[in-house]
Amino acid sequence: MKADAASLLEKARHAYGQRAWADAFELLQATDETTALAPEDLERLMWSAGMLDRDPDIFAAAERLFNTHAEAGRDDQAAYWAFFHGFRLMALREEGRGMAWLQRAQRHAEGFGRECAAQGFLIMLSAHKELGSGNDQAAAALAAQSLGIGERCCDLDLIAFSRCYLGRALLRQGRIGEGIVSLDEAMLPVVDGKLSPVVTGLIYCNLIDACRQIYAFDRSREWTDAMSNWCGSQPQLVQFNGLCRLHRAEIMEVNGAWQDAVAEARRATSSLARNVSNETTAGAAYQEAEIHRLRGEFAAAEELYRTASRLGLEPQPGMALLRLVQGRAEQAAATMRRVLATTGTPLGRARLLPALVEIMIAAGAIDEAREAALELQTTADRFATDILVAMASQARGEIELNDGDAAVALGHFRTALATWQRAGAPYLEARLRVLAGQACRALGDEDSAELEFDAARAVFTALGAAPDRARVTALTASDKARPHGLTRREIEVLGLVATGKTNRLIASDLGLSEKTVDRHLSNIFDKLAVSSRAAATAYAFQNGLL
């Protein structure tokens, strides 16, 4: 019997070393039924259960580890496993049981009589809570404290975890360089395979999420690829696999591989061990909805946005942008006002502000669009990542174009366009080309406008972005039908000029500044080759513009 158990255990340890989690779990469990596992093999059983997302088995193994060490008087180890038991329960939102286990961990850590890794993990959990509440400075201080304990106790898991949280806190304070360095340091033992399996996956997820929040696309791609390779090397992996696929789907969308993004989002959901309403399922639904919206498949997009909402994810700004393309700008504006009112963090708001600018301009709420563009610029100045700067430049350009200063607008569009080209984001690049084309048209440069519109149309056609392609077609058809070159806003201003209203009254009627009306009127004079309001009015009536 003992020989059989020894053989099983040898096979189990080999499977564990090969990261064949299901095989390792079954063999360790079979060994345990014959001869109770020693603590080091019980740890292997628990980590294997963790990689298979088998919570009952995780809790059973963690409790046995806690009891084994507590009975032996090893309070530091008892505290360690009590922490991981409570940590997992808290992740599952079982806060009552989770807090009980964390308090147990605290009690045993204090009973140990000197510093131990469990104390650092408990402090790190406090840093996590401070991050969640937006207290980034306190989170950074706590993460630095837990890092110090990890270094003194030589606990690689704690060191990497603490550096990860420290990096996130620094990034959110706008200390981008320091934050990236801390995150990169956290990844070194991950890449070298020196951390426990579940902690490895958690570090990957935290780092990728941090890079996404500050729009560090290059880092996001790099670490998403690394995580994909890590997941791919473990065919029996269940935990983290769905989240990895979701990150890959997001990258694929930006890269223009839309069909692949849809397939990967669906695989993210199908790879889950349990059919539960979790963040990965909701995120996958939202990601697929975005592709359907961009393709003009509105019914499918609507259904998936609603699915994401039922699963607890706010389906914005996607659903508001869907309403906008459906011609329901006022509804889109109301939704975005509501969402922004409950979003406090600068980076969280930055994700919504570009859509807010577009929607508010369409809804005629120019002052709100201008405020949103200014806020986005403030955030970009604070965090100073290329993508945020590009987003702010585009928003400022949209405001300037609406205000009639096409030359300044075009400069902003060119700045943003260069960033999206470097980022390899064809759809976003094409959208900017449409805006640049409109600016060129407003400046009377029809050849450049046609070049921009043609380039954008080719991308939209290749991607299957039907609504955007239709918009470009409408813009070019509109150009041919309006040889005078006046924009819709300029025709609107000219109509009010024809009624005899002053620039101040026109500004009041249209919700513009008087300076903007002056600029529109100057553009009208230039395009019509006239020098007075009376001459412009006469041209308008003679050519059927009014």
Task: Provide a short characterization of the protein structure.
By secondary structure, this protein is mostly helical. It contains 30 helices and no strands.
List keywords for this structure.
about 550 residues; mainly alpha; Serine Threonine Protein Phosphatase 5, Tetratricopeptide repeat; Arc Repressor Mutant, subunit A; 30 helices; about 80% helix; WalR-like; Sig_transdc_resp-reg_C-effctor; DNA-binding; DNA binding; WH-like_DNA-bd_sf
Describe the structure.
There is one protein chain. This protein is mostly helical. Among the domains are: 240-312, Alpha Horseshoe (Serine Threonine Protein Phosphatase 5, Tetratricopeptide repeat), CATH 1.25.40; 482-546, Winged helix-like DNA-binding domain superfamily/Winged helix DNA-binding domain (Arc Repressor Mutant, subunit A, Orthogonal Bundle). Helices cover 80% and strands 0% of the residues. The chain is built from 30 helices and no strands. It has helices at residues 2-17, 21-34, 39-51, 55-71, 75-91, 95-111, 117-133, 136-153, 156-172, 176-191, 197-213, 217-232, 241-255, 258-270, 279-295, 298-310, 318-325, 329-341, 346-350, 353-363, 366-383, 386-403, 406-423, 426-442, 446-463, 466-481, 488-498, 503-510, 514-528, 533-542. The mean pLDDT is 91. InterPro entries: Sig_transdc_resp-reg_C-effctor (IPR016032), TPR-like_helical_dom_sf (IPR011990), Tscrpt_reg_LuxR_C (IPR000792), WalR-like (IPR039420), WH-like_DNA-bd_sf (IPR036388). This is Helix-turn-helix transcriptional regulator.
